[in-house]
Write a structure and sequence with these properties.
By secondary structure, this protein is of the alpha+beta class. The protein contains 21 helices and 6 strands. Helix content is 64%, strand content 8%. It has a 6-stranded mixed β-sheet. A hairpin with a 3-residue loop joins strand 2 and strand 3.
């Protein structure tokens, strides 16, 4: 098999630039469309717990892992600038998602070749997880961007081991970890990659300098990360969310790991239709074989470093990150490997038809882009239309039938979404817990009252999707019905499977 330089297709820079611009436009359009998705519980929780709090609270509160600290700081600035709206919370993710495509093109062009980088961005543009989280007020798109930029900084350090470049690498590593701590799985891979290149690929006269620069950069990254997390470490004497994690036994770990891997890759491949998925698997297989060639040390070392670092961290901690979204920052490299395999296949197929290479390459890129765009758009559209019972639609109904002094009861996940909308509209609330499945908030402008029925004109609004959810609620509310009054209920509106039920008290004649 030929080396990477000989695997380049005969595609003009102008054609690559045109395809890349089309990819960037499509990627941005899909991500803007994803911003129309209903408000997610994690977004509402992030706003209420972090974005709406002082900066000091953001950098010192890590009770749960929802606080993607660096993103929370940037998100708060966005909300302060544009107001407490859904699009203001999501705007930073949109920008980071688009920048991630540009940065990965630059990185993958250095590691492989320009055509492989173009195909990688085509796949990234329509990859459902990347599109979805570029339209959500969460830190995953920022994590992916910083992780790619950290690899770029590592490549710069490998080319010329200077102290300034080592400092840039350390700073980006610390910022990536400050966004989401699970970035440690990937940051370890970056330093392992540099170590492998220093041992097997660097010139002898630079090998010692690179290893020293690598060590100093890693030490600086550790110090910077500890400084950034120092308010949390001092406040909680460690990471409370990490303390709550339960390490698995080795047998359980090795049983659960393949299932987790299959679940993650299935999520990644969800974007592509079945015919195109066959090409993706073929590209992945050929990409792995191509990278195993001894003359492709740089990309091969990159993929090996990712696999070894992630596996080592999982075995050492005996903890598998519980959510598929924890691995999104690795997805661009998975797609890059697929793209490298596809360009290798095209080179072999069209090796004697050089003049047809631009047309075949452009056709493949447009086919993947159009197919992925249609499939991802369809999934997002169905999700928007299917969420007929979401808080975005239910809140205007609840607002219409409630007034200051009334109580609104709903499931915990819906409750925080409502609280976001009430906050947006400048309405203050009290909140009490009802049973295990139901939260209650009081629309309050007159002071907190323990009973929902202080006056006969006050109501309780119940929002529920299941009739069985009414039971714990009714058991609670009946205790507060005044003597001589009866409780009446009326379904005032429905939205999908959700019902809006109004409870009032009446005095028998």
């Amino acid at each position: 098999m030929k080396n990477i330089q000989n695997q380049q297709l005969n595609i003009s820079p102008a054609s690559c630039a045109f395809i890349f611009c089309l990819v960037l436009f499509t990627a941005t359009a899909l991500r803007i469309y994803a911003m129309a998705l209903p408000l997610d519980y994690d977004e509402a929780y992030t706003f209420l717990r972090y974005l709406d709090k002082p900066f000091a609270k953001i950098i010192s509160d890590y009770t749960v892992a929802n606080n993607h600290v660096l993103f929370s700081l940037i998100g708060k600035l966005s909300v302060m600038s544009f107001g407490p709206s859904i699009w203001a919370m999501r705007l930073p993710s949109l920008i980071f998602g688009a920048l991630g495509i540009v940065s990965f093109y630059i990185l993958w062009q250095r590691v492989t070749n320009r055509q492989s980088a173009i195909l990688a961005t085509v796949l990234m543009a329509t990859a459902l997880p990347l599109v979805f989280y570029s339209g959500q007020a969460r830190g995953y798109s920022l994590q992916a961007l910083l992780f790619i930029c950290t690899f770029l900084a590592a490549d710069n350090l490998q080319q010329q081991p200077k102290a300034s470049r080592g400092l840039i690498l350390a700073t980006l590593s610390a910022l990536c970890l400050y966004t989401i701590p699970t970035s440690l799985y990937g940051i370890g891979a970056i330093y392992l990659w540099l170590l492998l290149l220093a041992i097997f690929d660097a010139p002898k006269n630079q090998r010692c300098n690179l290893i020293v620069a690598l060590f100093l950069s890693g030490l600086t990254a550790v110090i910077l990360t500890l400084v950034l997390y120092s308010p949390i470490l001092l406040h909680y004497h460690g990471f409370p969310s990490i303390k709550q994690a339960n390490p698995l036994e080795l047998q359980e770990l090795f049983t659960a790991l393949p299932q987790s891997l299959l679940s993650v890759t299935a999520r990644w491949n969800k974007t592509f239709s079945l015919p195109l998925l066959t090409c993706i698997h073929a590209g992945l297989f050929i990409g792995v074989i191509a990278l195993c060639h001894k003359k492709t040390i740089k990309p091969a070392a990159l993929i090996v470093s990712l696999l070894v670092s992630i596996a080592a961290m999982i075995v050492i901690t005996r903890i598998i990150p519980p959510f598929q979204r924890n691995w999104i920052f690795i997805l661009p490299f998975y797609l890059g490997l697929v793209a490298f395999g596809l360009t290798t296949i095209l080179k072999v197929i069209t090796s004697r038809l050089n003049r047809w290479q631009p047309y075949v390459f452009s056709l493949l890129a447009l086919l993947i882009l159009s197919s992925g765009t249609f499939h991802t758009h369809t999934i997002l559209k169905n999700k928007i239309e299917r969420e007929t019972g979401n808080a975005n639609l239910l809140y205007p109904i609840v607002a219409e039938f409630s007034k200051p002094g009334d109580f609104v009861a709903c499931h915990e996940f819906l409750c925080d979404k409502f609280r976001f909308f009430w906050h947006r509209d400048g309405i203050t609330l009290n909140k009490i817990k009802v049973g295990w499945d139901c939260n209650m908030v009081q629309i309050n402008r007159r002071g907190y009252k323990s009973s929902p029925f202080q006056h006969s004109e006050e109501k309780v609004i119940l929002v529920t999707r299941k009739d069985k959810d009414k039971k714990p609620f009714l058991n609670w509310i009946k205790k507060y019905v005044p003597s001589g009054y009866s409780l009446t209920e009326k379904i005032v509106a429905t939205s999908g499977k959700s019902k809006v039920i109004q409870f009032t008290i009446t005095q028998p004649r």
